[in-house]
Amino acid sequence: MNRVWLSLAVAGMAASAAVGTAVWPHARDAGTVLAAQDDPVALTDIRLSSTLRSNPALVSENIEAALAFGDSDLAASFVALARESNIPLADDLTKRVDDATADEASTTHFAKGFATGLVTGNAEDVASLSGTVAGDLFVFGDIRDVVREGKHLAMGEETDRLVLGLAAAGLAVTAAAYVSVGSAAPLRAGLTLVKDTRKAGRLSEGLIEWAGRSTRDVVDGLVLEQAVASGSVWRPVETASAIRAAFRPDKAGGLVRLAKDVGRVGEAAGLRAARDTLKVAENPQEIARAARIAEAKGGQTRAIIKLLGRGALLLTVGAFNLSMWLFGALLTLFGFLSSIKATAERATSSWLQRSKARRLKAQMAAQVALAGAPAQG
């Protein structure tokens, strides 16, 4: 019977070892991710390493796709990621990226895009987006947007309150930027980026919902109607002053923090990286995490967002599921240690029983020999 228990203990130890071998890699990865869940840069490194290890060709494939789409900035971001990750690229591929980047940065191309962004407020590339930011910095763009949306509001028509609130906030911040000699420029750029991304229909649904709530009370409707009624883009100074009076800075704290973080992304990784972030992030907390990633990764940021999407900004697997892997590993370890203990106990018990049986047998043999010995006379 003791042998049966010993066999069961050994079988349990073997089973626990087998299960532990299978569970350990998942538990190790889960522990690493959980430890990095509050550090977006470390979390990004973990995910990137896993993604690129499983398919290194992803980088060159995405470079080819970006070049075919005419997005040399994204292609250059993947080249930077490849260099950082020690992924070799063909010389002709990197040369094509360099040529495309140089062409996009040419004076003629940039001047045309800049003028388009300045006049229309629509941005499709870095040049036109720079023009949009410049237009807002000189209040022309914000006045245009406030007058347009303000008239919709006054006439009871459908109004984009988010664009209205962002433009009004932009006018107030622009004044602060001049006073502080440019120190508010990142915030100014952030407001423009959010507004432009919204106008282009590329802002995530989560941010649209959040920003819509946040901007509802940012503008005093009655004061704005009066400003719009007498305002004009051709009288920017007077119009801007009248519109700023309708802006409620005490209600704009959340919007300002969001714009600052967007501006941080733009400063560290470029305007397009900021727009890509606004497309995938669903709330201000994720924008703040993106800013930390951009400040650490710089030019690689667009490639990271392209590869990982929103997963670069948060845990894609719930903390509960990750904890269950760790819990499973602990249970397996407990089972393995318990099996070792049971095996040792059963083996020790078996050895003691055999030793006792041998001693008893030797004693009986000695007694028999003693009993059979002839009596000495």
Report on this model:
By secondary structure, this protein is mainly α. It has 2 domains: 1-35 and 327-371; 103-312, no CATH class. The chain is built from 18 helices and no strands. Helix 4 (72-84) packs across helix 5 (91-104), helix 9 runs antiparallel to helix 10 and helix 10 crosses helix 14 (253-269). The protein is elongated. The two termini are 50 Å apart. The model has no long low-confidence stretch (mean pLDDT 75).
Radius of gyration: 35 Å
Structural class: mainly alpha
Estimate the mean pLDDT confidence: 75
Question: How many structural domains are formed by the residues?
Answer: 2
- Percent strand equals under 5%
Distance between the termini: 50 Å
Number of strands: 0
Number of helices: 18
Instruction: Give the uncertain stretches in residue-range form.
Output: none
Residues in helices, as a percent range: over 70%
* Shape summary: elongated
Largest sheet: none
The string of secondary-structure elements, in order, is: HHHHHHHHHHHHHHHHHH
Keywords: Membrane, Signal, Transmembrane, Transmembrane helix
Transmembrane segments: 312-337
Signal peptide: 1-17
Give the topology, please.
Elements (H helix, E strand, L loop, with lengths): L1 H34 L4 H15 L3 H12 L2 H13 L6 H14 L2 H14 L5 H12 L2 H15 L6 H19 L5 H15 L5 H11 L5 H10 L5 H9 L8 H17 L1 H10 L3 H14 L3 H8 L10 H54 L5
